[in-house]
Amino acid sequence: MASIGTPVGCLLGGPLLDALGRRPLLLALNAPFLLGWLLLAAGARAHVAYLLLGRFLTGLATGLASVPATVYLGEAVQARVRGVFVTWNSIAISVGILVVYVAGAASRDDWRVVAWACAAWPAAVVPLLLLFVPESPVWLSHRGRAEEAEASLRRLRGVAPRPAPLAPAFAAELAALPAPPPPPPPGAPPPSRAAALAALTRPEAWKPLLIMNGFFLFQQITGIYVLVAYAVHVVDKAGVTLDSYQATVVLGGAQVLAGACASFSLARVGRRPLAIGACAAQTVPLLALAVYLHVGEDNAPALPLAMLVLYVVAGAFGLHTLPWAMVGEVYPARVRGLAAGLTTCPAYLYNFAMLQAYLPLEGALERSSARGGVEGVFYTFAATSALSVVFVLLWLPETHGRTAQEIEAAFARAPAPAPAPAPAPAPAPAPAPAPAP
Fold it and tell me: Which stretches of sequence are listed as region Disordered (predicted)?
């Protein structure tokens, strides 16, 4: 149910993000989060419908949160340190996964305690923190609220409010904020959603939209989120000898630590080289684990967990982190909310399809295996990980150190036309005949 609600939240989140702003939407989405966790915690003893509705609402809120959180980080920080901050959304998700893994290992079957703890977060913690967060200066400037945009940017950069003089770097950043769109002619209707959709037909919008949807597709078909959702099951099937719940805590801890390292790496390394290296690196442990299970020897009991840890670490540097980090970077400001929604909605649909297909796929591969093992699953994920390297090499753009204007211009730039051939010189006129004597 959560995987059904999340795409709906993404579709709603894009238009709401552009209409309401980043901060108001981040505040409003705590309501469905809170209601969903309360239904899960208190309504479970009443009827299963409360569980289903609670999961749908938490999924809806997750979809609503996916767009503004990523976009806000991309808009609020400077280009030179954007690589560090845009990954914090993924790191926060990894921390949440680790906390739930630890709580699950501690409480085992008493999951209601976990639900009550999760309800406290949107009830008090998140709204309190958002009181100290200013609205995005990019959104304010695009709405024609120049003074508020400057005040927001001053607050984010720690610059004294007016009438303090502006440093050259801050003045340049302020001047780079997007201008509001021109007003419609007198008597013309205001811009409609159709106009926003028409803006998606421009190359600076549709090119990154296609690329990011492909990037998110590889995130799912390489099994990154299958391991998150079916951690205990996958650990058991992989032949890990450690207690399954303890092994999931090890995997969650490795993901958090690797995500933090990836965050600081992005301040120095481009997106493309990191993605290429990470996608190639996750292919190796998947292939090694598949071969180990195929051979069927049990003389290296620590190897399955070690390979899963390496897979998680490589994913934290690449496909688990980079697609979410780049959503807030690659789209023009005028369609950023809509385009981000049209990216994250399919991403969660891919996630839903993958999670629904995984267990039947695993069963089919087990039945087709001569040894009755699940090595076919890991062979499949190794193959898709190798294909993701090709995708990155061919299509993923580099955004490291570039401003939003530079990224937009790179997508909008058309190849220079070939120079037209020079016209042939006109033939010289024939000389006039000499007059007769």
Answer: 415-437
